[in-house]
Specification:
By secondary structure, the protein is α/β, with parallel strands linked by helices. It has 15 helices and 14 strands. The strands form 4 sheets. Strands 4-10-9-8-7-5-6 form a 7-stranded mixed sheet, sandwiched between helices. β1 and β2 form a beta hairpin. The longest helix has 20 residues. It binds pyridoxal-5'-phosphate.
Amino acid sequence: MHSTLDILLQQQLAALDAAHRRRRLRPFSWVDGRLRDAGGRVLIDASSNDYLGLSQHPLVKARAAEWAERHGAGAPASRLVTGTRDITLAVEEKLAAFKGCEAALLFSSGFQANATVIPSLARVGAGETAIFSDALNHASIVHGCRAARAQTQVFRHNDLDHLEDMLRRHAGKPGRRLILTESVFSMDGDRADLPALLQLAERHGAALYVDEAHASGVLGPQGRGLAAECGGVDIVMGTLGKAFGAFGAYVAGSRALIDWLVNCCPGFIYTTALPPAVLGAVDATLDLVPGMERERVQLAQNSQRLRDALALRNYDTLGSTTQIVPAVIGSEADALAAARRLEDAGILAVAIRPPTVAAGTSRLRFALGSHLDDEAMARLLAALSDL
Ligand SMILES: *Cc1c(COP(=O)(O)O)cnc(C)c1O
């Protein structure tokens, strides 16, 4: 017997299937640090966000195990109850120093941080806060804007004239202004112009919130992110599950910002603290990342080689200048077919489809790593020629 709900769900799933938009979970395994599919076949991983290979680093794994052994498998409560330990505060201090900010606060995930910090910020001060958000901002930022129930204006991607227009039209209205952007955009791999955004924010009395999920560890001085390059960003958010190879997220900024979030941010207050193993992994990566210049150079070279090869074959790479390199295909079905052909050649480059990206821009999204050596890159480029 199927319930009415199940029948409706099955109809919706069938519609997704027909549109080539149905998503399915696939199991992978990492054996000796190499990606394998369910059948055990080794694939060249061009889809993970483990940009520096840190999730497999011996020191990172060892410290995760050591801290779990010493402090236990889980944090027993939320941060304001008994979930804060000396190691939690020490990792937050280390993060703040890494980001060049007064203070930092750990979150369970980047999604949770964006979804809950943005609404918290929108509630500060008298009157309604107006939010200005880049059109390509991550789903978690969009979620945060909706949860804020504040007026949100979406400016065209990286179009600062459009943003300035909106800010001008808003001038004279009461309430605060908050500009939201990513420093490296997760699906296009291009960058925001943070110095120009800072100038705009200053001119219009707005606060600037920057999501560094894909820049932290990879870009900026010693991998400290693009906000560290220019300074002055009010709220810097980043994740620890991508280049940091661990899990969780953080917000960094002034002491007042962090103390206020501790008091007023529900996604920080009403959730269990990160477990010791995660803190250990993050602690180790914070020791390693500043010194990984060789890996960052290798990653930039890999990315440039891939972009050059794609340009030669007339693929649109959408202004990518980072380790995220899209190759726009168009329809969902064609993008899936291209991903399948690459996989036949031993390359895992997952197809990204709507609603993650706009209709008609389904693509292969390459996310490269510094651990892809010359042989792996050569195989990747050869497979492209056969597409
Ligand atoms: C991945 C991502 C997040 C979410 O971070 P998680 O820690 O994976 O939840 C937030 N913002 C951007 C831009 C991302 O790419």
